[in-house]
Structure formats: structure tokens, C-alpha cells
Amino acid sequence: MRVLKKSIPHLFLMAYLLIILYPFLFVLFSSVKTDNQAIASNPFGLPSSIIFDNYINAWVNAKISTYFFNSLYIGVLSACLSILFAAMLAFAVTRMRFNRLSAVVFQLILLGMLIPNNSLLLPIYSMMRNLNVLDTHMALILPYVANAIPFSVIILAAFMRSIPGEIEEAAVMDGLGSAGVFFRVMLPLTVPAIVTVFIINFLGNWNEFLLANYFLSKDELRTLPVGMVGFRDAYNTNYAQMSAGIVFSVLPVMIIYAVLQEKIIEGVTAGSVKG
């Protein structure tokens, strides 16, 4: 009975996992089937023959490669810039001696978490138009960086508060200034939290659709989520190739979560316990 009681939660979790993964498995199996007839005749079964031409056609003919690298470039650059600015701000509010000002700034950062991003669409569009960066990648990079700063500061500040002050004092005694302490001491010690913030920000930028859809009209500048909508409209009669395009958009995210999920948990919980 004891073994049975311990097995019941695992059985529920396995059933839940199958329910979550089944739509992706359906798309994965459909992407290697020959045509719509093969999908319709056996929609939930394994393919009788594996066809990789769907991936080649989707990558080349549907410009998935262009959309993919646009999303990769914008996502990585935005995540790195947001980490740099957020780390400097977190260092200022946690390690520098501006008690009242630091408290006020941190409260303003917390307020930034309460504002829904979709409600800022029109103000952001107006700002990007005034800056004359619409129809350029900067129209996405600037909002992505700004939107990621509040969450990034909260995570990095929690980690920096847990770092002993003696390390900072020893660095100052060795002749380091504020910039030296930040770049040579604090940043290396904050790597676990930085990795977590980078992963979360990158995945958010990778999956973002609303701003990318309205701020970019040129096809060669579009990101993968927006490109997939056009791919669906152009190839809605070829479900095999459309499924291949969906796999291209989903697979990198699943790989990042599978490989780096421990880093995400480690960075989120970092700084919660002092010792």
C-alpha cells in the first residue's frame, strides 16, 4: 500500500505529461508524413515512411531560415542588453549607499511589473515612430530591452543581496572602484542568476508576436512567430510542410528548457536563503 500511495502522484504526473506533449507529437509525426492524405488516413499514428523533404522545403521555400535567424539575433541581443542594464541598476540599488533613493527606485521597478505589456502598444508605437526606427530591428530591440528590465532587476537584486559585503570591501581595499567592483567581482558571482534571466528573456523575445507583427512590415525583417502566420496562410493546404514549420519554431524552445531547466530553477531560487 505504501508503494501504491507513492506511485499515484507519479502516475498522475505521467498522464499530465502525455496530455501536454501529445499535440507536439502529433505535429512532429505529421511533419514527416508524405502529404495530407497520409495525415488524414492516420492522423494519430506513426508515419509509415519518414519524409524529411518537408523540412527542407519549409526551410528554403517558405523563408523559415530568414525568420529563424532574425528571431535568434533579436532575441539574443535584446536579452544581453537587458541583462547589462538590469545588472547595473540592481548593483546600484543593492550595493551602493543610497538608501532612500535606492528604495524609491526599487519600488518604481516593482510598479513596472504591474503594467500589462499589451496596454503599452500604442505609446511604444508612437515612440518608435518618433525615433524613426519603424521597419527596423531596433523597433523590437528597444521595447524588448525595456520590458525585460523590471523582472531582470528583481531577480538580480535578490541574488546580489545574498553576496557577503566582505567580498566587496576586500575589492575596494585592493584599489577597485565602483566599475571595477561591478565588472570584476559582482558580475562573475552573479552568473547563476544572469543565466536564468537570459533564458527567460530570450524565450520571451523568441515567442513575442504582437510588437513584431505591427512594427515590422518588410518580409525580410520579420521574426519567426510572424513568419509562421504567413506560412500558414500560404501553405494551409499542405499540412505536412506547415507542421515542419511549426517544429522549427517550437524545437529550440524545448531544447533550451530541457538542457537548462536546472539553471532556471537555480537562478530563481538564488538569494532566497542566506548562509
Task: Tell me what the structure shows.
This is ABC transmembrane type-1 domain-containing protein. It is a multi-pass membrane protein. Belongs to the binding-protein-dependent transport system permease family. The chain crosses the membrane at residues 12-32, 72-93, 105-125, 137-160, 181-203, 239-260. InterPro entries: MetI-like, MetI-like_sf. This protein is an all-alpha fold. Helices cover 76% and strands 0% of the residues. It has 13 helices and no strands. The protein has helices at 2-31, 36-41, 53-60, 64-95, 99-112, 121-130, 138-161, 165-173, 178-189, 191-207, 210-215, 224-234, 239-269. The chain has two domains: 1-50, no CATH class; 61-271, MetI-like fold. The mean pLDDT is 83. Helix 3 packs across helix 13 and helix 4 packs parallel to helix 7 (138-161).
What order do the helices and strands follow? HHHHHHHHHHHHH
Mean pLDDT: 83
Largest sheet: none
Which runs of at least 5 residues are low in confidence (pLDDT < 50)? Answer: none
Give me the CATH superfamily of the largest domain: MetI-like
Give me the Rg, rounded. 23 Å
- Approximate helicity band: over 70%
Count of individual helical segments? 13
Number of domains: 2
Shape: globular
GO cellular component, one term: plasma membrane
Transmembrane segments: 12-32, 72-93, 105-125, 137-160, 181-203, 239-260
Protein name: ABC transmembrane type-1 domain-containing protein
Pfam families: BPD_transp_1 (PF00528)
